[in-house]
Amino acid sequence: MARSSKLAIVGGRLAEALPALIGIIVVTFLLTRALPGDPAVQFAGPAADAKSIAEIRKSLGLDRSLPEQFVIYLGQLASGDLGQSISTGQPVLNELVTRLPASLELTLAALLLSITIALPLGILAATRPDTWIDHLCRLVTTAGVSLPTFFTGLALVYVFYYLLGIAPAPMGRLDIVMLPPPTVTGFYTLDALIAADPATFRAALAQLVLPATTLALFTLAPIARMTRGAMLQVLGSDFVRTARAAGLSGRTVLLTYALRNALLPVITTLGMVFSFTLGANVLVEKVFAWPGIGSYAIEALVVSDYAAVQGFVLAMALLFVTLNLVIDIVYTLVDPRVGGEG
Amino acid sequence: MQRNSASEAGSARRDPRRGRSTWLRHLHHVVTSNPVTLIAFLLLGILLLAAIAGPSLVPYDPLATSSRMQLKPPSWQHWFGTDQLGRDVFSRVVVAARLDLMISVAAVALSFVAGATLGSLAGYFGGWTDRVVGRLCDTIMAFPLFVLAMGIVAALGNTIENIVYATAIINLPFYARMARAEASIRRNAGFVQAARLSGNSDLRTLAVHVFPNALPPMMVQASLNMGWAILNAAGLSFIGLGVRPPTPEWGIMVAEGANYIVSGEWWLALFPGLALMLAVFTFNLLGDGLRDIVDPQRRT
Amino acid sequence: MTTAPLLDVEGLTVSFATRNGTVTAVKDVSIAVAKGETVGIVGESGSGKSVTSYAVLRILDRAGRIAAGSITYSGIALADADESALQDIRGREISMIFQNPRAALNPIRRVGQQIEDVLVQHAQATRATARDKAIDLLRLVRINDPESRHSSYPFELSGGMCQRIVIAIALACEPRLLIADEPTTGLDVTTQKAVMELVRELTRARGMATLLITHDLGLAAEYCDRIVVMEKGRVVETAPATRIFRAAADPYTQRLMQATPRPGVGVRELLPAEVRTAMPPRAKFNDETACEHPPVLAVSDLVKAYPKGSPGGWAFWRKPPPEATEVAFRAVDGISFNVASGESVGLVGESGCGKSTTSAMVMRLIDQTSGTILFDGKDIGAVPSSDFARHPDRGRLQLVFQDPTDSLNPRFTAARAIADPLHRLGGITRADEARTKVELLARQVGLPLDLLDRFPHQLSGGQKARVGIARAIALSPKLVVLDEPTAALDVSVQAVVLNLLVDLRAELGMSYLFVSHDLNVVRLLCDRVIVMQRGRIVEQGETEAVMQSPREAYTRELLAAAPRPPV
């Protein structure tokens, strides 16, 4: 496989993300404009009078035809204009950008946690079917997909904060008395490390542990389940039998032959896992008063701040498309067959 | 060789087509050979009982408030305690079963019908039908699904019907993709070609020969999906969409109870949360059991 | 043989734990392989031959267990050796090659590395020297350009080349015993011959013993010194290869041997003597009759081209050869032939030659790119395939499928499958009328009436084949295309089905177009044979004439590649 053809495939993947992007923009546009009800009334908020509604209708271009409105919408997006949030009076884009690192820190910490637990659990369960570890894996996966994240979060708060008192109050990213570290990445834990501030690091980490665990418990199940399934299938395949018949050591068979092949479907599943994680993220942010874009959207929903909600949906979709793109590219680079076979 | 005999034995065991008495005998065999599936069926029975007869079974009016009985912990009078308005939590949890199940059953039914139709047309005919359906699914899947559901409910309006539509839309791609895969595997199977040779039109071949064979795996998917649909609907009401207080619904009850967790009144959130978990757990177990019946080799 | 055998299997019993309890797959099997000897284990599906070979290397599925017996390899008891001792023996002392070579290789690891893994594992090379050794091995198994093939992935190689890689892995550490489990099943006859010759040459040069597991008695007889015949998990006979065809002692072996198609033996002689009936009279075809009656099928200049880079999307037509993906691929490249009324014509070639695409076009399941197809004088090639389902000639042009299991709807009973064309095309609407006709057809194809209400999974392979045939003849077709109708069947069942087809043709006056890769089978059924290669017709003529004195080199190659049991 020539390297240039791999590059071409990666380029192709980037191009393939375009239709998804167009789809997202069309859907968010339709959600704001073409649905029943008067968007101007919605955008103006419940307290607006007829005059201000008419003004908003004009400023949003709602008096024009739908295609014209779409062109205007595209222009607004291109200039980063997602409208004003009526509750805070701030541009939606600014709010989202300020709050995004909080959501990202939580999501990534949770994913890291769940992958480090789920992969070994799935592998062990597949190599030792019908042992206690297999049953544990099955229990964890079934329970994991059955637990509502908001409920797990509350249970953890009750046990670790109210009963045991070892966790901090579920009130955001940092104790109110502490100052956030100077912003470099926007992730408080990393920034505290960069600023060599162990006290802030510990405080930020303590706040992160419970919400990240809640989210990880939820995403653990699909990853562990998929790993177990893929490993079982690969371990039963012809080429593993060939490797065993050739006397390769158990380690080589398991790692070089079985695991590498089993990881391919797991990588594909990660796309779905991201989708679940970003959704569950919203609920977890509410439970832990985590100041990310999810809790921003919930606050906006309560006061019918539609520009903010649509900005949030668009931001989440863009984030998800980017994550999927990364998965696709990783997959392309890992699997030699991609692009090799017509 | 042993693989052959195993799959033959497997196919001999799965026969949802031999007439009623054998079907019942088969069900009996499955339930007795796998006690977990039996438990799932029992739990389903309890859920259905609560959903159908709930309001006439409960000891208190789920909406009746009482200023004397606010925030009382579980007791013999109030098994699950009382909430901040003095309402009986047990009665509310039981009565909520109907609404929660109705939302998710309606959503899953909608997306099952629409997804199966679109998907099997796309898989069987290919070409532009496939491209249009594929693009539709891709667009839905380009969003984090729960977030899309939030956006849809926010745009369509904050009602229970819109929760159903939103949940149906985000579930649609699962069914459409599955039906598409099942139909396109079978499109070139010998028996489908044979059906065309026997003079069956394309639509008839699809309806009579392809689709019934794709149905069992789709039913498994539906059962596993039910749990997810319940979680989604509850999640939406947890963040204040769809169901409005004082209507008893598990998601909103957990949301109301959340405010009292930090002060130690755990029963408000625990019992509706447990009910929710139990419902999701039941459908997941049921799905796993059904999968064993449909395809013993695909157990993961 | 006075010295102890290299491999000595004594009283081996293997059982599998299944959901329905314990199933014994192999019962009390004893096999000995002497140093340098080639022993074949022959049996039909379900005979336990592969399980026996997996048990020797102890690579049974987790559910499988050696319940009794001993396996001794040059003094070492394998049946109860521990895993680390077994690892030293596997690949180093005993190695194995498998059927379906493409699946037998790690899909995402370069083939050279896979050979190196084995060399390094058994300390035959260090990582530094392994590459050169691996390339030497690739050269040994006759892979062209071994240096660059070293870094190929399995998907970039043909099935035959993959099997050579698997052989290279098996021989890398110069083991003393090679177990070959159906090593050529699924490969074309010419590739099959090349692979078997290679295995024979390499094992002989190294003085290795070979255990060849196969369903093909002819193949075993050609390559083995001794043959062990297995049936239902038991050994029924062990005899030198030369003797087994001449004087098999066991009745099962006799039946198996008799059912194997081979030169000089007619279709009736495949059946056991006690059930043989007289051959139906064979219609003679000469130029005169051909002039009097127009041909049932006249195909001229038929072409099927797939656009550049398109995978085609048609299951009958498999993967195109790699060199063809660049240009528009012509699966069928301008062929013309006739099938006369009542005639049986064989269409023979290796996979990818276009024979199945041709039959699919003739059947109007896919559209041709250009060319005409006249059926009974009518231009059916002009009717698009999507409209042909309701065409009046649909019922008179029918197909018998390759895989009887795949060709029956798992949710339809046998009776419903046979009745389907009667309802759709035969104008029969009343259930009792259809039932009468179905029972008549079942009698014609020898399907017991009590099986009519069963579902496909409750029928044996032969019974399913009969259902498929009954469905095809339900509307008294003039032309039936037989697409490898016996390829998925065991030889004894194949013999019965072939004879049934001969009788039905005589009884109903149908014409056959018999698509097959196997000249020995085609010969039994066809008056004329057409040989195809790369979408073109290479040679056509009277079957016996083509078989006896082929004019084209490719036909000779095909004939020479077929295994030739010692008669």
What is the strand and helix layout of this fold?
The complex is a heterotrimer of chains A (342), B (300) and C (567).
Chain A: H1 3-33, H2 39-44, H3 50-59, H4 66-78, H5 92-127, H6 132-146, H7 149-163, H8 188-194, H9 198-235, H10 238-245, H11 250-287, H12 293-302, H13 306-334
Chain B: H1 2-13, H2 20-33, H3 35-57, H4 89-125, H5 127-141, H6 145-156, H7 160-187, H8 190-197, H9 202-238, H10 250-261, H11 267-294
Helix pairs in contact in B: 2-3, 3-4, 3-11, 4-5, 4-7, 4-9, 4-11, 5-7, 6-7, 7-9, 8-9, 9-10, 9-11, 10-11
Chain C: E1 7-18, E2 21-33, E3 38-42, H1 49-57, E4 64-73, E5 76-77, H2 83-89, E6 94-97, H3 111-121, H4 127-140, H5 146-149, H6 159-171, E7 177-181, H7 189-206, E8 209-214, H8 217-223, E9 226-231, E10 234-240, H9 241-246, H10 251-259, H11 287-292, E11 297-306, E12 329-339, E13 344-348, H12 355-362, E14 370-375, E15 378-379, E16 397-400, H13 414-424, H14 431-444, H15 461-473, E17 479-483, H16 491-508, E18 511-516, H17 519-525, E19 528-533, E20 536-542, H18 543-548, H19 553-561
Parallel strand pairs in C: 3-8, 3-9, 6-7, 7-8, 13-18, 13-19, 16-17, 17-18
Antiparallel strand pairs in C: 1-2, 1-4, 4-5, 9-10, 11-12, 11-14, 14-15, 19-20
Helix pairs in contact in C: 3-4, 4-6, 6-7, 7-19, 10-16, 13-14, 13-15, 14-15, 15-16
The total count of strands of chain A amounts to 0
How far is the first residue's CA from the last residue's CA of chain C?
A: 26 Å
How many E strands of chain C? 20
Number of helical segments of chain A?
Answer: 13
What do these coordinates show?
- The complex is a heterotrimer of chains A (342), B (300) and C (567).
- With 342 residues, chain A is an all-alpha fold.
- Chain A has helices at residues 3-33, 39-44, 50-59, 66-78, 92-127, 132-146, 149-163, 188-194, 198-235, 238-245, 250-287, 293-302, 306-334.
- Chain A is globular.
- Helix content of chain B is 75%, strand content 0%.
- Residues 1-19 and 296-300 of chain B have low confidence and may be disordered.
- Chain C is 34% helix and 23% strand.
- Chain C is globular, with a radius of gyration of 26 Å.
- The longest helix of chain C has 18 residues, at 189-206.
- At the A-B interface, helix 1, helix 6, helix 7, helix 9 and helix 11 of A face helix 5, helix 6, helix 9, helix 10 and helix 11 of B.
